[in-house]
UniProtKB/TrEMBL annotation:
Residue ranges constituting the ApaG domain according to the UniProt record: 3-128
Name the record gives this protein: Uncharacterized protein affecting Mg2+/Co2+ transport
Pfam families given in the database record: DUF525 (PF04379)
Transmembrane segments: none
Superkingdom assignment: Bacteria
Source organism per UniProt: Marinirhabdus gelatinilytica
GO biological process, one term: error-free translesion synthesis
Length: 128
């Protein structure tokens, strides 16, 4: 698990290799990840959008941006958390992800960035 706190928002990430997919003899490597966003600040916050940088061992990079996470823009009171799971496909059995969430402090109506810590995506068989 990797964790990071930015401006009172704690991000915790776990991930795992789900297996290989083959489409027209081109392999893809499936990974899942679960993220918990915990509001440790004294303010009410809302997750507005996400920005991801995904890179694989072949140096392919993909940028993913969008509103919210998994179709929601959760509002978190102080002490509350939101957990969700998602996944990605890589062209190699190893890679990494990192990014940011744009959050809004609903008490001040100001946006701020929260770092999603970098985490590695590794298929166990590729580690030898």
């Amino acid at each position: 698990m990797v964790q990071q706190i930015t401006q009172g928002i704690k991000i915790s990430v776990t991930n795992r290799f789900e297996g290989m997919l083959e489409d027209n003899t081109i392999p893809s490597y499936a990974f899942s990840y679960t993220i918990t966003i915990e509001n440790q600040s004294k303010f009410i916050v809302q997750l507005v959008s996400r920005h991801w940088e995904i890179i694989d061992a072949l140096n392919n990079t993909e940028t993913v941006e969008g509103e919210g996470v998994i179709g929601v823009q959760p509002i978190l009171q102080p002490g509350q958390s939101h957990t969700y799971s998602s996944g990605c496909l890589l062209n190699a059995p190893m890679g990494a992800m990192q990014g940011t969430y744009t959050m809004m402090n609903l008490d001040t109506a100001e946006n701020f960035l929260v770092t999603i810590p970098a985490f590695k995506l590794n298929a166990a068989f590729a580690m030898n």
